[in-house]
């Protein structure tokens, strides 16, 4: 008997494609100042003036990505070569909120199969090709229910199988509009495609302009984005530039890395090895400062495209910390670390014995005793664990990082000719892709083995994989306390300071004693205590006085639960 509960019901396949959203009245877009968007081909649409938006940002955010998967693979969604198992793994491991999937080759039947397998964890919206939905084109949005809210999500199809709008909630609850595209490859069709999208927005002036735009554009704006470098068809580029200007969009990756060469489509060496950055993401110009971590990365899915990613936040989003440090599980058996712990533990034991002898004579040092020595020991081994965690990395991850550094260096080496750069980088990228697939498949095999062993046994793993998927509830802000109730409210959005405010509030509640007279309070306490019938027997009293033996401590440690949350020191039970 299958003990796994039935998946939560999902909307019928394609329902999102048939529902027209209730559009807000945003009015026509404001006209840009004269000359602001005048394009000097092949330069960028606006001056590259923003720097540093690739740095780490700890605000609450949504991670969005775009990837051309080059078809769905085997038609059977349960087959190992079907790409949707791999897409779900990618979405989960990269903690993506939204993934724009180009060349998805989806139809209604395939979408229903995907929903039956992954509907508890993701929401899938798609637009199929009109003539051959399972053989060409196709665009899809994958929403991770663990990371974003999927209630109320609506889609609008602009070009069947090629362009679709997704309306969802941002991290602050406001509407977020995302335009996904998979543009035709033929230059004339490509130009007509951009003009058709612009015509849609012109015909719907009250339609919210996209906050985020991404997918496979099949063109580049600048020669730097191709290897060998060359410009693309002028009519197609101009049509795209007109759309981009009308929607007030900027290429966030290029704004962040103005002179860097990186590519998202890599032709195999046997076919010439040409490379291009045709997969891109754009953001509304006035939202660019709220984006960070623009990136291009190789994935373990069988495709000749790389994935582009970005994190999008809002100005008033709460700032989250790095989280509490936890002892990494993969270094528990590291020999260097265990030898260090053994050595420090023996030294600690000698010091504790000496402290015990001193305290028997009444010489207790408040700054040097069993408690302070134990705290220092845990701090020292914790610092050593942090050090080893930075050094001890899986061999495959180390090899991938090494090859990526070599490839990026060659891509941007001005001393190399374009042919040498192209051929060298193709070889490196093929090695990287092979290792990424191996890493991806190893992780998948591990998950499959655990699911086979524990997936049908009620326990911690079973409960976790079958619980409802929803994003973590985040307290956006707390009102700062004021002495004057008439004073204008001010709010705190930093999570660490919000935690301090909450702690102080509850501490003050504990100190807020009533004005009950001391004698009455004592009487009430005694009344409660007298109701307790259970008493410690003399035998139990004598047992509690006995000191624990070493074997009893070892027995308790062996019986302690594993996979439990560590304490403030971050040291795991294991």
Automatic annotation (TrEMBL):
InterPro entries (UniProt xref): AP_endonuc_1 (IPR004808), Endo/exonu/phosph_ase_sf (IPR036691), Endo/exonuclease/phosphatase (IPR005135)
Comp. bias regions, Pro residues: 1-14
Source taxon at top rank: Eukaryota
Cofactor: Mg(2+)
Region (Disordered): 1-41
GO cellular component: nucleus
Classification via SUPFAM superfamilies: DNase I-like
GO MF terms held by the record: DNA-(apurinic or apyrimidinic site) endonuclease activity; double-stranded DNA 3'-5' DNA exonuclease activity; metal ion binding; phosphoric diester hydrolase activity
A biological-process GO annotation: base-excision repair
The Endonuclease/exonuclease/phosphatase domain, residue ranges: 87-289
Annotated keywords: Endonuclease, Hydrolase, Magnesium, Metal-binding, Nuclease
Pfam families hit by this protein: Exo_endo_phos
Family assignment from sequence similarity: Belongs to the DNA repair enzymes AP/ExoA family.
Entry protein name: Endonuclease/exonuclease/phosphatase
Biological source species: Favolaschia claudopus
